[in-house]
Design a protein that fits this description.
alpha/beta, TIM Barrel, Non-ribosomal Peptide Synthetase Peptidyl Carrier Protein, Chain A, 2 domains, 9-stranded parallel β-sheet, two-stranded antiparallel ribbon, 14 helices
């Protein structure tokens, strides 16, 4: 059991435009991970809001015409969720945003942060950190194309690289997003070139929050525990945080953050609790993808769940070898029966 801190400072009450989120620790958009099953479990364990995984505007426009696309682009039901878009400055990105809202997503996030090479090569994602005019125009286009009751936010990095011109463009884009009508910005304080290597710059988060003042700014980067989430808020002054890699295979991070914020003790999940949740995750994945694809999808989650097991490496190897539903039950029966 983890004891509470002697004195826990009050947390800010998070709002995204007209959307009252409340508790300021939400689940980030995670490419390849934050699908409907993962977001559903995060909500069950205390996430007040979740972002769906990033989708290209063309996939949203074309995919929502098909049953498979509608099944993947699915909001959660017990807490609001937002859809994240990545695209170019074109009318299609507005169409994509409108379709996500029509599906039931409560907010739209624009991704100007993705560092994947093939994305950058198509002038999307993190490439927009090199082009303030295009980035700001996309925000303005989407904001003007949606009802003002639908919050619009933007995901940024601290720049494309660490040169002085890149830093200047970052501040231009940050100010321009709010001027174009963005209700919030989420800042991952690594450069696009840096990807996920090295520590994220929390001092920049503090500087950016002082700079934007009353505007809503959320932080991201190196949030691997509930304590990290609360520490970022207290140390930098941001209005909230988005738990990303730290939430994969660990949806308890939201439950634990709420306990820490309330000054209450909490315990890591027992193996019995882990087994129950992994079984629930698998069932949700089957509902979403069908039995065959569920096994493939869940393998990467099993690897992450294994990090909480006392025999981490052996359990990880067991999940890697899974190919059929029966294999999943065998892994759970072998490794998640007796608490250690």
């Amino acid at each position: 059991m983890v004891s509470p801190e002697p004195s826990t400072p009050a947390l800010p009450h998070l709002r995204l435009g007209s959307l009252d989120v409340g508790f300021p620790v939400v689940q980030a958009a995670l490419a390849g991970y934050s699908d409907w099953p993962m977001r559903t479990l995060a909500v069950r364990l205390g996430a007040p809001f979740t972002w769906a995984e990033v989708a290209l505007e063309r996939f949203v426009v074309q995919g929502t015409r098909r049953q498979r696309g509608r099944r993947i682009l699915r909001p959660t039901v017990d807490a609001p969720s937002g859809g994240q878009l990545m695209g170019e400055d074109s009318p299609e990105i507005v169409d994509g945003a409108r379709r996500l809202v029509a599906l039931g997503f409560a907010a739209i996030d624009l991704n100007f942060a993705c560092p994947v090479r093939k994305v950058l090569g198509k002038n999307r994602g993190g490439h927009l950190m090199t082009d303030p005019a295009a980035a700001i125009q996309i925000v303005r286009r989407v904001r003007d194309g949606l009802p003002h009751t639908v919050p619009v936010s933007v995901k940024l990095r601290r720049g494309f690289d660490d040169t002085e011109p890149s830093r200047e463009r970052f501040w231009e884009i940050l100010d321009g997003c709010y001027a174009a009508g963005a209700d919030a910005v989420t800042l991952h304080p690594r450069s696009v070139r840096q990807r996920y290597e090295g520590p994220s710059d929390w001092q920049l988060l503090a500087e950016a929050k002082r700079h934007v003042g009353r505007h809503t700014l959320l932080g991201s980067g190196d949030l691997f525990s509930a304590a990290d989430c609360l520490r970022m808020i207290h140390e930098t002054g941001v209005d909230g945080v988005t738990a990303a890699r730290g939430a994969i295979g660990n949806p308890w991070i939201f439950q634990q953050a709420r306990a820490l914020a309330a000054g209450e003790p909490w315990s890591p999940p027992s193996l019995a609790e882990q087994r129950t949740l992994i079984e629930q995750h698998y069932q949700l994945a089957e509902q979403t993808y069908g039995p065959r694809r569920a096994c493939q999808t869940m393998r990467k989650f099993g690897i992450k769940y294994a990090r909480l097991h006392p025999d981490q490496q052996q359990v990880r190897n067991a999940f890697v070898a899974v190919t059929r539903p029966d294999d999943w039950r065998a892994v759970l029966d072998r490794w998640y029966t007796t608490d250690a």
